[in-house]
Amino acid sequence: NFVFIINVFNNIDTIIEMLKKIDCNEFDVILDDALHTFEANICLFENTYSNLKYNGIYIIEDIYYKDKIKFIKYFKEKKILFSLIDIYHENNIANNGVVIIKKNENL
Q1: What pTM, to 2 d.p., does this model score?
Q2: What is the 3-state secondary structure of 77-94?
Q3: Left (φ > 0), alpha (ψ -120 to 50) or beta: where does 73 sit?
Q4: How far from 29 is each of 2, 24, 76, 99, CA to CA, in Å?
Q5: What is the pLDDT of residues 56-93, one digit of tens each?
Q6: Which pLDDT score, from 0 to 100, does residue 4 have?
């Protein structure tokens, strides 16, 4: 299995160019550890989800509590299988959510 980790979000064009240079264009797992905003996470998701294998797992980490409803609404409207998990940490209660998406045929 191949794991692709995105840990820097400069702009989407940079990421798309990087994907073109990688010899593998389908991934079992994509982990988005990028800029922690709803807009940036969704932009990255929409531009990299096609590189995820069917039944692959896409993970968005460090979801802000204030953005949970936006993520839930977005993925429900797209009919995408997902789970949103809150992970308690006493020193950081602002952005400890994780979205886990299993690729299906809808997007």
Answers
A1: 0.81
A2: HCCCEEEEEECCCCCCCC
A3: alpha
A4: 7, 12, 21, 13
A5: 999 998 888 889 999 999 999 999 989 998 877 777 66
A6: 55
How many Cα neighbours within 13 Å face the side chain of 104?
11
Tokens representing 28 are: 């079992």
Other beta carbons within 10 Å of 72: 13
Asked if residues 53 and 96 have their Cβ atoms less than 8 Å apart, the reply is no
Helix residue ranges, H only, the chain: 12-21, 38-48, 68-77
Where does residue 69 rank: exposed (0-12), middle (13-18), buried (19+ CB within 10 A)?
Answer: exposed
What is the predicted pLDDT for the residue at 58?
94
